[in-house]
């Protein structure tokens, strides 16, 4: 029996949620962690689903997840919100 944790992280707008998603989606969970992570953006909310066999595995993954979100939001705070209306950095990949 596995453990699943669903998290919704709100952002001021869809563009910031999409940027956070694009930054986080490139970091796959290590296979040895035993955690599966699914990310998506719904309006201005980043939706994350973590699945693992043990709660401890999810806890470790969640700590890293929120550390990265904290760093990204600090970057928004320090440099201001995106100045362009369009954001397509990863869309061309």
From TrEMBL:
InterPro entries tied to this protein: CTAG/Pcc1
Subcellular location(s) per record: Cytoplasm; Nucleus
Signal sequence, renumbered to the chain: none
Main location: cytoplasm
Keyword Phosphoprotein belongs to the record: no
Record key words, sorted: Cytoplasm, Nucleus, tRNA processing
GO cellular component: cytoplasm; EKC/KEOPS complex; nucleus
Keyword Nucleus among record annotations: yes
GO terms of biological process kind: tRNA processing; tRNA threonylcarbamoyladenosine metabolic process
Protein family: Belongs to the CTAG/PCC1 family.
PANTHER family referenced in this protein's UniProt entry, alphabetically: EKC/KEOPS COMPLEX SUBUNIT PCC1 FAMILY MEMBER, EKC_KEOPS COMPLEX SUBUNIT LAGE3
Function: Component of the EKC/KEOPS complex that is required for the formation of a threonylcarbamoyl group on adenosine at position 37 (t(6)A37) in tRNAs that read codons beginning with adenine. The complex is probably involved in the transfer of the threonylcarbamoyl moiety of threonylcarbamoyl-AMP (TC-AMP) to the N6 group of A37. LAGE3 functions as a dimerization module for the complex.
Name this polypeptide is given: L antigen family member 3
Biological classification of the source: Eukaryota, Metazoa, Ecdysozoa, Arthropoda, Hexapoda
